[in-house]
Amino acid sequence: MKLSTRARYGTRVLLELALHWGKGPVLLKAIAQRQQIPLPYLQQLIGPLVKAGIIKTTRGARGGISLLKLPKEVRLSEVVQILEGSTTPVACVDNPELYPRSDTCVTHDIWAEVKKAMDKVLKSTTFEDLVERQKQKWNLKQLKDH
Amino acid sequence: MKLSTRARYGTRVLLELALHWGKGPVLLKAIAQRQQIPLPYLQQLIGPLVKAGIIKTTRGARGGISLLKLPKEVRLSEVVQILEGSTTPVACVDNPELYPRSDTCVTHDIWAEVKKAMDKVLKSTTFEDLVERQKQKWNLKQLKDH
DNA sequence: TGTTTGTTGACCATTTTAGTCAACAATAAG
DNA sequence: CTTATTGTTGACTAAAATGGTCAACAAACA
Q1: What is this model's ipTM?
Q2: Going from the N-terminus, what domains does chain B have, and what CATH number goes with each?
Q3: What is the pTM of this model?
Q4: Cβ contact A118:B114 at 8 Å
Q5: Per-residue pLDDT tens for A77-112?
Q6: In whole angstroms, how large is the CA radius of gyration of chain B?
Q7: Among all strands, which nt has the closest C1' to A4 (CA)?
Q8: Does B121 sit within 8 Å of A114, measured CB to CB?
Q9: Confidence of residue B146 (pLDDT cuts 50, 70, 90)
Q10: DSSP structure string for A89-127
Q11: What is the 3-state secondary structure (H, E, C) of chain B?
Q12: Which among A73, B43, B96, B111 could bridge A69 via Cys, Cβ 3.0 to 4.6 Å?
């Protein structure tokens, strides 16, 4: 049940953009460095995000990428869907019609429940939530470090 | 976020055993046929289940495999764990100490929540539940088919 | 004793994943 | 308008995971 690096990296990138909201584009190379993502790999992740209308890119000097939507309008579920595809643990949950077995098989039902539980978390989390939680976490850490 | 065939097949096998509870061993070859699982593949799935004490095997004529525990004592989470390993979407959730980033990174927290949501479903489901639901589903289908 | 079963470990092909690269296209600054 | 800076695309590759096979073996029953 592993999540691919695509979805993980993508989430970190968008979180960084959300934290930088309103301050202009962020250089891809800088993101790659901070997030420890190989630049050429990062480059191919942003394509789908641009097509989905979540981010926009600015070329040329002082360019980079920036969030197109408000952080609260971007759900984690979208990002996972875009970069990784469906969260279904089993193909028959997305396309029961292709699997005659699903008609009579309860394992199908239980996997559907698992998916539902995951999706509930992903859909209910926006990048505004993540920004908020990130700031809180930093504050907490600062307190501890003193 | 795909579940491997190992966990899916294993679940189907155990469900079949649970439905057959108390009626002696079930022939591996027969399970393979009914569940459409290649016999040699099925064979290597049962090893770990035996070691975990969930099933026992009977060799020789009229042998097969049978459930060692009561269906209600076997949780879906165990089976997935045994055949597929941890359900963690991201390694840093299981071993945060190996990932310095997890200390300050909220994406770590959110993946942990996703895992928790999945585990909740898997842990709360026993094979007794599955048997019950399976019977209900069959009844429903019979009604519809008339 | 021999036939019926399960057991094990090694092996293999395919697919997926993660990553690289090179050639290109747009933009801004000077 | 030229050049340096940035993003864009698609093809490519190495490594790992997945799904499956096989053969030799071991136990148990009839």
Answers
A1: 0.94
A2: 5-144 (1.10.10.10)
A3: 0.95
A4: yes
A5: 999 999 999 999 999 999 999 998 888 999 999 999
A6: 18
A7: C17
A8: yes
A9: confident
A10: SSHHHH-GGG-GGGGT-HHHHHHHHHHHHHHHHHHH-BH
A11: CCCCHHHHHHHHHHHHHHHCCCCCCECHHHHHHHHCCCHHHHHHHHHHHHHCCCEEEECCCCCEEEECCCHHHCEHHHHHHHHHCCCCCCHHHHCHHHCHHHHCCHHHHHHHHHHHHHHHHHHHCEHHHHHHHHHHHHHHHHHHCC
A12: A73
Tell me the backbone φ, ψ of residue A145, rounded to 5 degrees: -75, 0
Report, in this order, helix, strand and coil percent for chain A, each rounded to 5.
65, 10, 25
For residue B53, which phi and psi values (nearest 5 degrees)? 75, 20
| CB contacts < 8 A (A, B) | 91
